[in-house]
Amino acid sequence: MLVQEGSRAMTESTIExxxxxxxxxxxxxxxxxxxxxxxxxxxxxLALADGAAVTTEALIDDLWGEEPPRRARNSIQTFVSDLRxxxxxxxxxxxxxxxxxxxxxxxxxxxxxxxxxxTLEKAMGVNDPAEQIAALSEALGxxxxxxxxxxxxxxxxxxxxxxxxxxxxxxxxxxGTLELDRNGxxxxxxxxxxxxxxxxxxxxxVGLLARxxxxxxxxxxxxxxxxxxxxxxxxxxxxxxxxxxDALESSILNQDPALDARGQQGDAEPGHRSEMPFxxxxxxxxPVPASTFVGRSAEIDLVRQSVLGNRLVTIVGxxxxxxxxxxxxxxxxxTSDVSVIGFADLAPRSSNSTVVDEICRSVGLLEISGDxxxxxxxxxxxGPALLIFDNCEHVLDAIAELTGTLxxxxxxxxxxxxxxxxxxxxxxxxxxxxxxxxxxxxVALLKLRAEESGLAExxxxxxxxxxxxxxxxxxxxxxxxxxWLRILEPLDLLDRLEKDMSMIDGSQSGSKTMAQTIxxxxxxxxxxxxxxxxxxxxxxxxxxxxxxxxxxxxxxxxTIARLVDSALLRTTYTDSGRRYRQLEPIRAIGLARVATxxxxxxxRRTQASVMSDLASAIGGSLPSADETAWRTRLEExxxxxxxxxxxxVEADPLTAIELVLPLAPLVSFVPAGGARxxxxxxxLIDWWEFPGGLAAAALGLFAKAYLDADPTAAPLxxxxxxxxxxxxxxxxxxxxxxxATVRTVMNDPIxxxxxxxxxxERGREVGxxxxxxxxxxxxxxxxxxxxxxxxxxxxxxxxxIATELGGPSLISLCEVVNGFAALDDDPNQAETHxxxxxxxxxxxxxxxxxxxxxxxFLHARRGRCTQALTLIKASLERFIGAGLQxxxxxxxxxxxxxxxxxxxxxxxxxxxxxxxxHYPPIAAMRTFGQHIDHAREATxxxxxxxxxxDEAITGILALTERLLASTSST
Length: 970
Prior knowledge:
A five-stranded parallel sheet has the order 12-14-15-11-16, with helices on both faces. A four-stranded mixed sheet has the order 5-4-3-9. A three-stranded antiparallel sheet has the order 6-8-7. The chain is an alpha/beta fold.
């Protein structure tokens, strides 16, 4: 029960904590205590939490900021202990330990801040002016001075001081207005003068002060106050006063009897409002989401700094990215920087008036009888304020107009908006929100939400990453998918989602559907824009500007810009330039929409035609001086190429052949993913019916045997060999290179050398210099590996062609072969060639990888085994990155051989073991017995089992680290 003590309201509880003024602890019996500064700050933070728990981390952050001392947690415990001792025997009951923090027992503690705010609410809740005046006077009577003067700083204490000071100003303004309306006089003139001195642009206070001076018979002083305001606004801010100030000035000049009428009438009508036509309460607090916020720490800091540096920041992004949650978290971190903060959810609003009403409510404006925009201007004034406008895309025109008006007239205002469309207001700073990073935040969110939905077993990292990658790191999609993990295995869920994205329709979580997040944006598109969106759905890797102009026509640029502004298309920055793509869940929903109409075929054919032209352009440009740029472009386009091949092998086999055939002669120079494009062509097309397609088939088999260690390579290679004999070798000579490479995998290097030689001869006949150079290079390499006499003339010809073509990958490979040729007679010259192979900076990992491996080999021969180990490890990483698993085995052989050297084993054994590698790559690892026993279980046979390639590579890397660790211990 409340007990009155003068004008101060207290409770019959154990202690009263006074914060409005110097911090005081008032115990039963009236004894007053003042704790030491650090414990006092802890007590103030707990008292300001209104009975909620404050975590130790939050206390540390408020006391020390970003650089707390090493024993900060221990210091917090010490401060709490000091407070408990200060409070006496009941201290432990008053300060409770809750989870990872502390709280004040709300049943035993009263604060003057709580009494102050409850009394203000009481004043706002009654209509009788006399009762309002009494309540406001009672609340203001609690002020003993500026709140917590010794603790003012940053963090929540500062935020509370700013909030309380702002509430006091509003209470003084409200009390002054009521007294003037009721009595024609006010006792608040001195307080109003103090506020104007501190906040000289606050129009409401200046207007009240002018009225108070005029009511005291000081017309000249009243006009002077208004003139000073007009001058300050004009000279300092370039603004004019609001129309209510103009009207008040005119009334004072004309000595309008209405200014004195209320004093003559006595009590005003309860419903009457003066020229400050609204009531004020505390702003609506920021929403408190039910679920834990995960990740985005960097984004929170970036957006917070952007808001502090710019008056309007709009978080823009697709539906489901978490714009609202990010804005709320940023708002929480800005509470200490502003005096007023309001949050307005604009999703349900549909008109200008309802938008203004919602924003007024967010900052505590009630019972507005006049213009609500003017009320907002006066409420916000010139002081520091933050408004958060959420879901602006639903009322874009209305919110853009209102935001521009408020920013022009409220000089301390900052606006943080969230929208799928930018507001396009002058001075707007757009923050394009990205999806969650898959390896970190996305996986953490998936696992947390799956656990919250009832999943008992943890999800494997590899499965989590695969699922989050497919969902493109979109938080809403991840949360909706996580609800299924309590009944489905992750890979099963992934397989189902790839076939039907409607699974994540929100029915499991009560959330909105992924489709609903984009339906609104799709509905605003024109027919041209909608057709463009559907076309781009067929490009999983998105489109470049030149591709967009080809498939979308002359209005491509304007259409792309509109789709980007609608958050239906995302700009990405790649090594070859900007690309425009849809996040995968949005693309999947778009494809389902197209499929429902039954008209996907035209879009797929268009996409395949674009990719076929690209393949031809790449085929004519590799290898060459601009090889790196073309390889980069091919790597970026691989998802698009794969989609085109996947459609064409069933719908149009000739188009499928056209897609992969230009890459057939370039298998040594294209990325591993490019080589794999031919696999479905080789498997699903009757390739022996298409002589030109035989090259593509061979490329597919080469990719299987060479890159994926596919055990089916042997019988398929025999079929290719028989087909070549049947066609009397009229097939493209590049096919011979691929078949020869398959034979090396099958441990037939002599047969491979013969085919390489034939390929170079036939390449000269038909004018294929790239085929000639590649065949000569591979022939020389295998002659060295098999200790045969090397073709010196061929090596020189290979070098000449490489120099003429200028392709760095071909030059690198030729330098490697030259190094082989010099290795036995002149090791120093061989080393020079190997280093030159590295210096040309070839984009493919093969030439530089072999060069690093051979440099390691030379170091090992010379007894420099630590250097050898470092270089061979680098070659291993290069081979893994390029997908060259045979070479992975070779590099592992080199690693273990170098270890043998460190253990004083004969160098000859090292050379023999390095060169004696077999198919599959894992066999090279098995050769070294006891030195790799600890890794055998993780890697044995992994490369022979479909779907276990990642597991094998993980085991290989783990083995490498163990080998290096064992080296350092010897």
